[in-house]
Amino acid sequence: MNAYRPAEIGMPLAEVDTPAFLLDLDAFERNLDRLDASLAEKKIEVRPHAKSHQCPEIALRQIARGAVGVCCQKVSEAEAMVDGGVPDVLVANEVVGAPKLKRLAALAKRARLAVCADDAGNVAALDEAARTAGVKLDVLVEVNVGANRCGVEPGEPAVRLAQSVARSKNLRFAGLQAYQGAAQHLRQVDERRAAIEAACARVRETTGLLAKAGIACEKVTGAGTGSYMFEAVSGVYQELQVGSYVFMDVDYARNDWTESGIPRFEHSLFVWSTVMSRPAPDRAVVDAGLKASSVDSGMPRVWEVAGAEYVKASDEHGVLKLDGGARVAVGDKLKLIPGHCDPTVNLYDHYVCVRGGRVEALWPITARGAVW
Asked: Is residue 141 part of a domain?
């Protein structure tokens, strides 16, 4: 992590240098409240996905509100969470290769840890790594519920893999990972609901066959910000892996939320930028380009500046298209909503946490760059 601090506690927002990564604490906390309220009557657990924020400080706040732990995607992310005091981590992904497996097994001595598998050879490698480390490792079988990414096919293939886990001396079959990631950004509510209903049918088929085989499936985990209420009321899932709800980005904002049961979460995460050039009446340039905000899901959106549209990004520059009424001058500081929060988080060392126009805290993004 870079030793540079982008701001100091108590500093007025206007004095924070750019680009900086702002977290509006009031909006962030309202998002936490909204998730809690939406699930208040549901008998289901929450395991937020830390890949969205990569920050133990946020993870611990989620756990303090009742989350059972967090998810991670990589062993290095899990290490950062455990180092930061998080006691329960699911690596909701496959871990392959001797160096990573050794670190994974070692981490299981320091925290409650689980991992996913979708291959019998990987199950054998997990068993050997756990044996060498002297630990019992929880393993969830990942089932392909429609995203066509990782995951063994539902039904008999998943049962055979669960049997392989259950037979392993150093592993414990801990349930099913059933995340329908492709459903999260289907724009219409009915589309998302239908995708989750199809996922639930695949899970039901698998859990039914597991029961016939005498294998207890204690947990089905999955879901995301775009669909979690459908999983919550399905009777199939016991755990929800929501992540982006804490921040919300431009891409999630394109979803329709009407009659979904999912609240409208607020934008709480912004890239703080400065107008560095106003070379034409219809154009301005800010100091936040590709190195400041991911554009894989579209361009950032200019927050609360009428007539200004972010239309082009290069390494260090973001070009704004201005209509005739846009009031933008060199030196102005603007908030940009990231197009996709997760990879944008990976570009920064700190959240500059702001409340009431002043910096209240700096939270290190300690899992930044944790891709191994």
From this structure: yes
